[in-house]
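#struct-pred

JT: dropping the chains for the assembly here, can someone run the whole complex?
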Amino acid sequence: MATQGTVIGVVSNLATIEVNGPVSQNEICTINLDGVPLDAEVIKIQGDHVFAQVFESTRGLKMGSQVEFTGHMLEVELGPGLLSKKFDGLQNDLEALSGVFLKRGEKADAISKETEWQFKPLVKSGERVQGGDWLGEVPESWIKHKIMTPFGLEGVWTVESIAAEGAHRITDTIAQLKGPAGETRTVTLSQRWPVKIPLQAYAHKPVAHKLLQTGVRLIDTLNPIVEGGTGFIPGPFGCGKTVLQHIIAANAAVDLVIIAACGERANEVVELFTEYPQLDDPYTGRKLMERTIIICNTSNMPVAAREASVYTAMTIAEYYRQMGLRVLLLADSTSRWAQALRETSNRMEELPGPDAFPMDLTAVVANFYARAGLVALHNGNFGSVTFIGTVSPAGGNLKEPVTEATKKVARCFYALSQQRADSKRYPAVDPIESYSKYLDYQEAQEDMRRTLEPHWIEKIAYIKNVLLRGKEAFDQINILGDDSVPVGYHIRYWKSELVDFGFLQQDAFDPVDKATPMDRQRYMFDVMNSVCKTEFSFEHFEEVSAHFKKLINQIKQMNYSEFQSEDFKRFEDELESILMERKAS
Amino acid sequence: MSTETPAFTKVYTKLEQITRATCTLRASGIMNEEMALVDGRPAQVVRIQNDRVTLQIFPGTQGVATDVDVVFLGEPPTLRVGTDLSGRFLDAYGHPIDNGPELEGKKMPIGGPSVNPVRRRQPSELITTGIAGIDLNNTLVTGQKIPFFADPNEPFNQVMATVALRSGADRIILGGIGLSNDDYLYYRRTFEDAGVLERITCFINTTDDPPVERLLIPDMVTTAAEYFAVEHKEKVLVLLTDMTLFCDALSIVSNRMDQIPSKDSMPGSLYSDLAKIYEKAVQFGEGSITIIAVTTLSGGDITHAIPDNTGYITEGQLFLRQNSDIAKVIVDPFRSLSRLKQLVIGKKTREDHGQVMNAGVRLYADAANAKTKQENGFDLSDYDERTLRFALDYARELLAIDVNIDIDRMLDTSWKLFATYFSKEEVGIKEELVKKHWPKGHTDDKDTVQ
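RK: done, full complex below.
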């Protein structure tokens, strides 16, 4: 019989429960509040007293309320029908919930039990399989959604029977498996998996190396992220974290995007709900919503479910990766998740770590980022989960626990700068502070040399140096004054400004400029390289800024025009002729 | 909220512990967050451990004896909502402070559940205020939540009242949190003079009232706002002033509850506590709740936990600052931001709005750099001189909070200033817009060096 208990204490969302049998850490239990079921997760056990964080408001909870333990951890349902859905942090289908306001205790199946899926087997009976191997597939929108063996299978099993081609509901049995010790398991179209356990039913994890195009020039060209890579975007409020993530979500060259809106503004998810069904996927021409799953636990939704939401999103991402797809997972913001951990830790009266965050924060963050990655499946296919999280550092100070914990594990660092945001230089990613460790990976370098051009890495290094030297020159000019430095300092500074205005800055709200395909980035990057390598001759420092502003204006007009259109070429010709005016002979 | 004692309720008479904000007693059958009366003082259950119940006493515990009567009311804090909320001034419990009758509407628990995100609509309706620092650079939209960040000496209450009256809202609900009595009377008189009392409801806690009572004000206000926005499909504008005092009250309570403080002595749950209030801003198909709040700063420091957490929750912030060059308060174009402005700019306003706004702010930033140079004793270039002259006009004609013009005029004024001081290249706006809007008769030779 399942363990039962009674509520003996409550403070905020933390309930104390007296139990009559065994319970396990992270087990889910259901508290009966006058007929309303409130789910809660066990987070601490002390003798027969259990502390559980309740996923809903505890208003009105009375002592003596009955509690049922479920015997399992927090799980999600994985199967066809997840695509394009909008879930809350506990995987309730938000569209299926009734009413304008969220009702406490109301649940909605993640996947419809009624829908019929056209199943096609991929194995024959007698074949040998391991956990996570493909048994068959069903068409889910445009995805050939793989039906897989249970991910937790140990050893090699044999397919005893497999359903023929035909329509099935998710609860129908489609295969029978026999284990090494003669035990049997039935497989349906869906299975459940605990969200806090990484889904590792793959052969191995090779080094991630293939450039992932996001359409953001500052990322793709200067600080590239790769398929299966990790990155994070810290920044004070108002610097454009969310806008940057939304641009990446809309333009990244991946099969599937999962967005975890974790403890952030509801209107930001509403924007996705409103625009994604209309916007086109730049690669397939389908609507963006057709490649997107949104998990939303906005800031006003219960705090405990906020922590669950990032794990729910990651588990769904790993599930689709297991089908050999390239998945991009975006979480906004991981700081809110850390704050949820802090609130709970605080209520349990644990000794606090830095800034009152729990001591194991670094380990929790590291484990989570480690779940991303490129994987090789048993059948030779590859799949990837690329993870980009935002971090909202308190007071914009990057020396705070969440930023520091994340910096240790994420390979790409896109530091948003208040100063750039104040001067409306968007995306406000600091070009000098930011980095991509993948530029140092031999595998990634080889891939870029092969797919882009042989000298690509050197060109990046050159432009990065132009930016750095420009900043140095700017500092000197500020210290010594405009006319006390050689004109060459001004030229150096204005070359870096040209790269900044002409290449780094991108207008997120302009239909052309908001996303730049890789071939266009290459073209414009060559323009940058050639302008920066040009020797100029000026008599006086004031001529420098005037001349460069003209150049910048032409490049900006190019950025606003369709690539290689009449206008584009006209602006390019004008750029060339302005350039000639001051070219040193 | 009702504070009358229901008949046949059990009365407890033994308090085991009293702190400055809470008391603890043994009682059974008590619900979490239930209201109670301790010696007639409103209180709320904040912790239960077996039969030990901890109550937060809103007016404080001064003079409470261990043998006072404690009565549990069997319900969370409520507000009676109905059309009789119109034109009323109420206290933190929803009782009249205007000598009017008690409310008689339907009892609603305050601090109710969140709106299902998929039932929200995208905000799209422009709110105009006539203030260019807002309409031009930081356009507001219904369903938005945005605070003024201001030092305590800046005239934020006057600006808020102006915005409220010009906003075209169907309903204005004011939450006065630790309002000085003078400011309370100012709002009252302003609303009366404008003849809009019938579309106004005010929940007021003044500095004369106990600080912990302030915790109830935002929930009271948003409960009333939800009633008008959902049941009557009205465009509701909520004003909350000053949210910093709300946060101070939170820290008092969490301190009394022995919670470990995080940054700046604020409770670790500050973000969630504020988000619960601000996220009540919503756009429905019909009806909306817009929240404009005030967060006072200490010495302009926005890294303090209160403005910092607020900034992460709200959809931008409007930064008020004294500009000594023109001796007026302006809406700071650098630190201010309206995150929802893109939903209306160029869509509900003229096509050149977006680019004109950005160019204006960028040139103003150049002026700030030039000013730094000037202050450090460096020679100014011709361009620097022009940006400084531009900045003066820009601040005076557009950024000052006493400007009251429509958005087309703001755009035309911007173009006029651009053309007066700069060349087309220096302004750097899309060519097709320049062709259309660049004022006639302005030559284009300002960047030539003599």
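JT: nice. The radius of gyration of chain B is 25 Å. Residues 132 and 410 of chain B are 6 Å apart (CA to CA).
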